[in-house]
């Protein structure tokens, strides 16, 4: 049973049949009052979606995003509806120079910026990306790509994050910060862990350092297969709240993670202002302190 992401009024998954009933009642009322006939009425109600404009903006044949009653709605491939949700991109130096004003105008709700990788390796475009999301008032979070092979390295990574936060005067303790735990081969003479308990210990140290500094909005980013293998522990499942699963339908159930969820559903979206492909995710707005 899926929980968290795309909660309707944050109380449960949006029921397509219930939405259809609401939609029919709204359609009848509007027609009676205005004498109009609605040409289109989707599961998500009477949103202000312009299909051709959406396709042009996102360069996707079938855009799953729409608006309904002023909030973003994501319709999965099987017709299930996630709402209210935010359209969020994540970027790193691979995207090079980004026109953040165009990103803002493209109906992106927020961005997750790579702060760096390992420890002491700040993303080359982090400084500029941070300055521009601030100027354009784009809600944002941060992520660190981990190279940790043991708890000492994880502690160094967490301290590097804290140093970078101080350097750029990021004082909001509720800023979303994600620990990017992906599969890495052995590197630099170091042997990477192979057992979930080892990764659990690494993540606990990283989280502990940030929590001791007062940062509370923490999570793990990874992909579904990694959660089912290398990261398959109860504690890691409970903290992995941003999952990559490239499909038009969310199949990952976030078992053991009862709070906020985010789903990265593609790595090949096109967004005005960003050159080339970019990751796009469906986020619960409460990650960004939005009720």
From TrEMBL:
PANTHER family named among the record's database cross-references: LYSOZYME
Signal sequence, start to end: none
Record-listed E.C. numbers: 3.2.1.17
Name under which the protein is recorded: 1,4-beta-N-acetylmuramidase
GO BP: any one term: cell wall macromolecule catabolic process
Family: Belongs to the glycosyl hydrolase 25 family.
One Pfam family it belongs to: Glyco_hydro_25
EC class name: hydrolase
Organism encoding this protein: Bifidobacterium animalis subsp. lactis (strain AD011)
GO molecular function: lysozyme activity
């Amino acid at each position: 049973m899926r929980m968290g992401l795309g909660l309707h009024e944050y109380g449960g998954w949006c029921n397509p049949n219930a939405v259809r009933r609401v939609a029919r009642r709204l359609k009848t009322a509007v027609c009676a009052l205005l004498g109009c006939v609605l040409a289109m009425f989707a599961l998500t109600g009477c949103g202000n979606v312009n299909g051709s404009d959406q396709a042009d903006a996102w360069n996707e044949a079938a855009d799953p995003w729409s608006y309904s009653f002023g909030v973003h709605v994501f319709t999965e491939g099987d017709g299930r509806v996630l709402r209210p949700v935010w359209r969020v991109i994540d970027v790193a130096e691979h995207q090079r120079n980004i026109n953040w004003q165009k990103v803002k105008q493209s109906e992106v709700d927020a961005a997750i910026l790579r702060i760096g990788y390992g420890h002491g390796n700040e993303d080359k475009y982090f400084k500029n990306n941070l300055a521009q999301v601030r100027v354009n008032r784009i809600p944002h979070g941060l992520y660190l790509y981990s190279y940790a092979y043991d708890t000492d390295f994880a502690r160094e990574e967490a301290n590097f994050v804290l140093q970078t936060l101080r350097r750029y005067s990021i004082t909001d303790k509720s800023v979303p910060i994600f620990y990017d735990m992906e599969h890495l081969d052995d590197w630099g003479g170091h042997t990477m862990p192979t057992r979930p308990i080892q990764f659990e210990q690494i993540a606990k140290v990283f989280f502990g350092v940030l929590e001791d500094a007062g940062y509370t909005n923490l999570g793990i980013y990874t992909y579904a297969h990694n959660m089912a293998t290398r990261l398959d522990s109860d504690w890691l499942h409970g903290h992995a709240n941003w999952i990559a699963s490239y499909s038009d339908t969310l199949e990952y159930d976030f078992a053991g993670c009862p709070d906020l969820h985010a789903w990265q559903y593609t790595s090949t979206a096109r967004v005005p202002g960003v050159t080339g492909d970019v990751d796009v995710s469906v986020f619960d707005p409460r990650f960004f302190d939005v009720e």
